[in-house]
Structures are given as structure tokens and as C-alpha cells.
């Protein structure tokens, strides 16, 4: 809308899009679209030995090509990256199923969006290649997977207006076009509600 398209603030290591006063490393004023990276073959080879979580690389570049939460396809098995120690040492969130023959062309299926903690070692928020959202987990198992180690996970739903508080509700709705005709349940029909 005629504003500032891009501002670089090298003194504070900040980039602004749509603002001339970026307050964070990346400060965007306006809407944003994030398009995930296409799958690609990583450099080097991976030779998995045994049912463990190790990802032993040869001539790989893990620190440059992978991020925690990305998925790796090695020898026909897909696993999610849990940690990256250096260019040839990483782990996955679940053990490999067996010894896998040396894979000279392992594929990376990058997560669409990843937010790591300040140390860069744990996932705070991720949107994986299947569109699943994980909070506190690098490998969300469902559309929304909230995990908190060492404590009970919780989700807070708050509803309020200036005049009165409202009761929050969770609605479970049937998705469109997930069964053949005749439909037993109408598309978008509410299947259940949790009230407070």
C-alpha cells in the first residue's frame, strides 16, 4: 500500500518488511504467505544399522540442509528429525525398523513451518509436510498435537466480551466429502460438542 517494502537494520540484526522500524529479527507488517520447500535429495549417504534412532551420515551436510522436524526418507522408511549434532550426526523421533542398506540418495521432506526454542534444539511449533500442527512436538501425529514433557498438556479456550463472559465450546464436525453416497451424516454436521 505504498509503505516501506524492506528495511535492513544491521546494527540490531533486524529485517523489516512493511516497516522502517523492525523490533525483532524479522518484523512483518501486513499479511504473509509461507510456501513450503519441495522435497529434495540431501548430499551424501546414510547407512542405518540396527533398530535405533541414529542417522549416521557420510559426506552429509545436516546442519545446512536439515532442520528439526523435517522428515527423512531412508531405505523406504520415513522418520522425523529430532536432533542435529553436526553435519554427519543426527537422530530421529522414532527408531528405524531394521538395518537399512546404505542409501546414497536419501530424500528430505521439509516441514512447512518450524519455530524452535531459543537454544534451537526443541520444537515450539511446527506445521509438517502433511499439514499437521504440533505444539511442543517435532512429529505431530494428528491435525493438532499438543505435547508438554514433564507436565500435563493443556489447551485454554477463552471467550469474553465487554458485557459478559461466554461459555467456550468445542465442536466436532464431519468433514466434507469423506464418504460415498448415500451420506450417513451430512457434510459439516456437528457430531458432538464439549460444553463448559
What does this structure look like?
With 196 residues, this protein is mainly beta. Helix content is 2%, strand content 32%. The strands form five sheets. Strands 4-10-7-8-9 form a five-stranded antiparallel β-sheet, with no helix packed on it. The radius of gyration is 22 Å and the shape is globular. The mean pLDDT is 84.
Oligomer: single chain
Categorize the overall geometry: globular
> What percentage of amino acids are in beta strands?
25-35%
Helix tally equals 1
Distance between the termini: 43 Å
Radius of gyration from the CA trace?
22 Å
Strand order of the largest sheet: 4-10-7-8-9
Unreliable parts:
none
Largest sheet: 5 strands, antiparallel
Query: In terms of structural class, how would the helical and strand content be classed?
Result: mainly beta
Q: What percent of the residues sit in helical stretches (DSSP H or I)? A: under 10%
* Helix/strand order: EEEEEEHEEEEEEEEEE
The averaged pLDDT comes out at: 84
- Count the beta strands: 16
Walk me through the topology.
Blueprint: E1 7-9, E2 14-17, E3 26-28, E4 40-41, E5 45-46, E6 57-58, H1 62-65, E7 71-74, E8 77-86, E9 89-92, E10 107-109, E11 113-116, E12 123-127, E13 133-135, E14 144-146, E15 169-173, E16 190-195
Parallel strand pairs: 2-3, 13-14
Antiparallel strand pairs: 1-2, 4-10, 5-6, 7-8, 7-10, 8-9, 11-12, 12-13, 15-16
Give a quick set of tags describing it:
196 residues; mainly beta; five-stranded antiparallel beta sheet; 1 helix
Amino acid at each position: 500500500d505504498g509503505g516501506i517494502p524492506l528495511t535492513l537494520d544491521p546494527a540490531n540484526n533486524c529485517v523489516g518488511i512493511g516497516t522502517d522500524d523492525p523490533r525483532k529479527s524479522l518484523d512483518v507488517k501486513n499479511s504473509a504467505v509461507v510456501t513450503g520447500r519441495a522435497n529434495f535429495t540431501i548430499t551424501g549417504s546414510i547407512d542405518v544399522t540396527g533398530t535405533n534412532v541414529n542417522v549416521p551420515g557420510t559426506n552429509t551436510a545436516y546442519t545446512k540442509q536439515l532442520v528439526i522436524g523435517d522428515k527423512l526418507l531412508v531405505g523406504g522408511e520415513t522418520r522425523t528429525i529430532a536432533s542435529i549434532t553436526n553435519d554427519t550426526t543426527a537422530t530421529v523421533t522414532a527408531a528405524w525398523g531394521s538395518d537399512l542398506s546404505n542409501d546414497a540418495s536419501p530424500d528430505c521432506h521439509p516441514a512447512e513451518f518450524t519455530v524452535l526454542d531459543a537454544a534451537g534444539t526443541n520444537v515450539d511449533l511446527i506445521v509438517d509436510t502433511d499439514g499437521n500442527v504440533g505444539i511442543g512436538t517435532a512429529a505431530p501425529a494428528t491435525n493438532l498435537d499438543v505435547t508438554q514433557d514433564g507436565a500435563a498438556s493443556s489447551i485454554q479456550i477463552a471467550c469474553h466480551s465487554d458485557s459478559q463472559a461466554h461459555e467456550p465450546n468445542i465442536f466436532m464436525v464431519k468433514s466434507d466429502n469423506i464418504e460415498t453416497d448415500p451420506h450417513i451424516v451430512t457434510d459439516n454436521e456437528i457430531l458432538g460438542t464439549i460444553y463448559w
